[in-house]
Write a structure and sequence with these properties.
The chain has no helices and 16 strands. By secondary structure, the protein is mainly beta. Strands 1, 2, 7, 8, 9, 10, 13, 14, 15 and 16 form a 10-stranded antiparallel β-sheet that branches. Strands 3-6 form a two-stranded antiparallel ribbon.
Length: 259
């Protein structure tokens, strides 16, 4: 639905649903779920609970006969609402933007290993809706200089906390280790990213040539949210990994030429 609310101001609202079914998955035909034995180990977080661990039959170790096929169960569904606006200012300026609120629910309960069934149907959990926002605009100033600005606010990516169970915890384990997810879907996320950018530009014309020098300042407030961190349970849990922080404030000079 789109409508002009005021002179030079239009607003649009939309509902979106995207459903993907019969997703491709890899089935190891040499091994079935019946080849695993259910064992338990204490939850390392000290909450008194026991974690399920599936021990593979020793005779099946190393057997591989993989088939890529379509699942009749696995799905990925997005539901969300978008609100956007466009406003034309006087003197050639404009501002536009909007929000998008929704979430993706993934179901991957047709899996090769039974340990992957833990948290496989996200619709069974309270996965929150997340909202992203974007505002952008430009305005002509004195001496034909144009000022542009962009504000973005995006939710952090979801974290899956993994506990690696080895023969130290279960001496009879046939595999070298088994990874068990500790947290439920939709419970932990990386930092929200808020970034504000500014730009100044001016166009010059010489015959059929157009030159536009530009001065841009990215991440004006030098925000430093964590984008990636260690998700393996242990002493390093939560440590920033790689380039896992938003790049710092950056000043850039540029030149655009049209000929």
């Amino acid at each position: 639905i789109q409508h002009e609310l005021l002179s030079r101001l239009s607003v649009a609202v939309s509902y979106n649903r995207r459903s993907f079914e019969e997703l491709t998955w890899t089935d190891n035909l040499a091994i079935s779920h019946s080849d695993y034995t259910l064992l338990f180990t204490p939850d390392p977080r000290g909450n008194g609970e026991m974690l399920p661990v599936y021990n593979l039959d020793r005779a099946k170790l190393g057997q591989v006969n993989e088939l890529d096929t379509n699942s009749s169960v696995n799905t990925r569904i997005y539901n969300g609402f978008d609100v956007s606006f466009n406003y034309r200012l006087g003197n050639g300026g404009s501002i536009f933007g909007g929000t998008s609120t929704g979430h993706v629910l993934v179901g991957t309960c047709e899996v090769d290993e039974p340990i992957q069934l833990r948290g496989c149907e996200e619709s069974d959990y309270d996965v929150p809706l997340t909202t992203q926002l974007k505002l952008a605009g430009s305005y002509p100033m004195k001496w034909d200089i144009r000022l542009s600005a962009t504000l973005q606010s995006t939710p952090g990516t979801e974290r899956s906390i993994i506990y690696q169970v080895s023969r130290t915890q279960i001496p009879t384990l046939t595999q070298a280790s088994v990874n068990v997810r500790l947290n439920e879907p939709g419970t932990e996320y990386n930092d929200r990213v808020n970034q504000f950018d500014l730009s100044l530009s001016r166009s010059f014309r010489s015959g059929r040539y157009v030159f536009r020098p530009e001065l841009s300042l990215f991440n004006v407030f030098n925000a430093n949210p964590v984008l990636m961190q260690n998700n393996n349970y242990g002493p390093a849990l939560g440590n920033v990994t790689g380039t896992g922080v938003l790049p710092p404030r950056l000043l850039r000079f540029g030149l655009y030429m049209d000929f």
